[in-house]
Amino acid sequence: MKTHPPLKRTAAMLLAALSLAGGSAAAARAANSTAFVAHYTTAFLSAQEQTAGNLLNSDRIRYNLSPLALDPELCRIARIKSEDMRDNRYFAHESPTYGDIRHMLKQFGYSYTAAGENIAHHRDAEKAQAALISSPGHRRNILSTAYTKVGIGIAADGNGHIYLTQIFAR
User: Fold this and answer.
1) What's the burial of 113, exposed, middle or buried (CB within 10 Å: 0-12/13-18/19+)?
2) Which residues are paired to 151 by β-bridges?
3) What pLDDT sits at residue 45?
4) In this predicted model, what pLDDT tens digit does every residue of 132-143 receive, in sequence order?
């Protein structure tokens, strides 16, 4: 993926941090990171999903990896998975409705050569990403070079916490 000159990267990161995270601690971290590339301005994402995508790619860049492209169809499927966990009151990679991620992608007619999934249930996108990058198995998905695309989906529960699903694909 194309990299941006440092000045443009810094300007983009400041704008993204200010507009997406409303002054949160994650926005402050992103604004201080010279490696952060903010390029999520897509209408198909909620503000929390956009923040989650920015945080995920910020972590990839911190480890000298290219950012993953956000795929609108993967985002839609990831949101459905998050809503399924919320609505059916479970937290697992195996959905009682859709099965595992490979089966779910097949059910939705999504073509891929490699796929993976991370899920989290936390107060917000910042806490969820911090937990995922701290977990060896989840970090492997986030930092894998096998994937070129990601879908981010969030559904809020009745207590104001979020179910976050990251679907990785090639």
Assistant:
1) exposed
2) 167
3) 75
4) 999 999 999 999
Helix/strand/coil (H, E, C) string of the chain? CCCCCHHHHHHHHHHHHHHHHCCCHHHHHHHHCCCCCCCCCCCCCCHHHHHHHHHHHHHHHHCCCCCCEECHHHHHHHHHHHHHHHHCCCCCCCECCCECHHHHHHHCCCCCCCEEEEEEEECCHHHHHHHHHHCHHHHHHHHCCCCCEEEEEEEECCCCCEEEEEEEEC
Count of other CB atoms within 10 angstroms of residue 97: 13
- Nearest by Cα to 107 from 116, 98, 119: 98
Question: Is pLDDT above 90 for 24?
Answer: no
B/e letters for 118-151, b = 16+ CB within 10 Å, e = fewer, are bbbbbebbbbbbbebbeeeebeebbeeeebbbbb
The pTM for the full model equals: 0.76
CB atoms inside a 10 Å sphere around CB 115: 21
What's the CA gap between 13 and 58, in Å, rounded?
10
Q: What is d(CA 70, CA 10) in angstroms, rounded to the nearest whole number?
A: 21
